[in-house]
Amino acid sequence: NKMIHSIQSAENALMASNERFVTVLDSVDATIYVADINTYEILFMNQSMKNLFGSDLIGKRCYQVFRGESNPCPVCKNDALIDDQGEPKGVAVWEEENPVTKRWFLNYDRAIHWIDDRVVHLQIAFETTKIRELDRKRKEAEAMLRQSQKMEAIGKLAGGVAHDLNNVLSGIINYPELLLLDLPEDHDLREPIEEIKSSGERAATIVDDLLTLARRGVAVNEQVDINHLISQCATLPEYDKLLSFHPGVHLVLSLEKDLNPVNGSPVHMQKSIMNLISNAAEAMPEGGQIQVSTRNLNPEEIMNEGLPSYPNGYVLICVADQGVGIAKEEQEKIFEPFYTKKVMGRSGTGLGMAVVWGTVEDHGGQIKIDSQVGQGTVFHIYLPASAREAVSADVKTIDLDAFQGNGETILVVDDVKEQREVAKRMLSRLGYTVAAVSSGEEAVAHVREHPVDLLVLDMIMAPGINGRQTYEQIVSFKPDQRAILASGFSESEDVKQTMHLGAGQYIKKPYSIEIIAQAVKRELSGPAGE
Ligand code: ADP
Ligand code: MG
Question: From ligand 2's centre to the CA of 220, what distance in Å?
Fold first, then answer.
């Protein structure tokens, strides 16, 4: 009896000890298995291993069930685990993505003597998928930081150069102007001097880009409606010019209706979008589609993209083309000032993407490239959204169709060529018949010859008569002349007097297509002379 008792208690102790070991093995956050080193037969799996691959795999071949191979794996470490005598030797440590689970593991393999004394293969593995992901994000963040430090330095350098160049250029632009004033119309030197002037102006636009890079940290305090900026791009003179060089290219907009606003600098934002559109067009010499889209990001996407969190989330702008694409190793270079694959100084200056980069940084955003050589490129721009305030009247998007004209005649009077062109473009786009003149005197003469339904009148013009004087002269022979006043300055005494004479509305320059559309419509449909 005593003997039976002691055998039983020894057995109990053994079972308890076995249970302890299995409990521990099944509770560790590592996958553990044992397989025969010659037959690859699975002899043991702990619970983590079973959770991952299935619970009744004992007796199966390890390479089949753990790696989906039909023969022993090429990566099998068995040979390395035993010495010449077939005895266990050191550990093999290796990391790999498991082809079945698609998860990453750090594996510790070694040969051991099994309970029946044969030599077997023991593997203990720790999953590293998450660590790798974190590591990848950290490296990405570091690369971004390096990139932004590099850009900062190059930007400073470029800015210094630009500053000096700007002073030099003002002479090259201003003197031709003065010379031209004194030269008779038919003088031989007019043409070359005009050429000097326009070259100087082209150089000035480059310098302007450089200054944008140097003046980093622009004010981003205006509430910007990105959709509106994008739609406006198609009305810019640059856009027409672009299309004339790339006739096979067409632009498709797909803009989210309730896009959140962004705090920003509209000028820089629009310039950046235009730069992306130009590059997209230039990447498609055979023509193709440029798609510009916008949408609000949801919180999950923001997390997946690893973006820092902002209270109002993010707005995403995508500019996609079907062009030549950008090779991986080029992708971080394209943001450097003066990096260009185009003919330097002719088609490219290499400043477009640098301006985009600086602008996105200033807006607290991020830019990502998705590109394949020969397939096309997508630029993703993530911008922190701002709270939706009561949007002020001049950024509100309106349905332009409701403000279309019907061929009514409008005369734009402005001494600045660009202003005239923009106004002409916008008004033609709205369906009006538009003419433009550059001075009050010309306006008076024009209206005498060809009466117009409406004047869009600049207030300050030099040299010659100003807006008020122009309107005074015109109403003297056409008392019910309708007019809108446009000025870069706030409402002045001249504006008030002109309105008193019967001009209808005053709008502040620069105005958007929405503003002028509404003003013109209101003016034309109201009673005349008010
Ligand atoms: P530029 O257009 O004057 O060359 P950018 O700074 O705008 O200068 O662009 C730099 C370079 O980046 C381009 O020369 C081109 O090689 C590459 N790149 C930019 N956008 C695209 C695009 N959408 N598709 C292909 N390449 C592009
Ligand atoms: Mg460019």
Answer: 23
**Confidence band of 393 (pLDDT split at 50, 70, 90):** very low
Residue 392's pLDDT band, with cuts at 50, 70 and 90, is very low
**Helix H or strand E segment including 448:** helix 440-449
Look up tokens 């000890």; give the residue.
Answer: 17
CA distance 20 to 145: 50
Is 381 in contact with 365 (CB distance < 8 Å)? yes
Q: Answer with the residue of higher pLDDT: 56 or 343.
A: 56
Give residue 250 CA to ligand 1 midpoint distance, Å. 18
Q: For residue 350, report the distance from its CA to the centre of ligand 2, in Å.
A: 6
Q: What is the pLDDT of residue 39?
A: 94
Check whether 409 has a pLDDT greater than 70: yes
- Alpha carbon distance 305, 314 (integer Å): 11
Q: Which of 206, 289, 334 to mutate to test the pocket of ligand 1 (most atoms within 8 A of CB)?
A: 334
Going by alpha carbons, the residue nearest to atom 17 of ligand 1 is: 334
Residue 508 in contact with ligand 1 by CB distance below 6 A? no
CA gap 184, 213 in Å, rounded: 41
Please state, in angstroms and rounded to a whole number, the distance separating the CA atoms of residues 27 and 38. 29
Distance CA 220, CA 117 (A): 74
Q: Which long-range contacts (CB under 8 A, 24 or more apart) does 18-23 make?
A: none
Describe the crossing of helices 467-477 and 493-501 by its angle, rounded to 10 degrees: 10
- Ligand 2 centroid, distance to 429 Cα (angstroms): 26
Residue 325 CA: nearest ligand 1 atom is 25
Confirm or reject: Cβ of 350 under 6 Å from ligand 1: yes
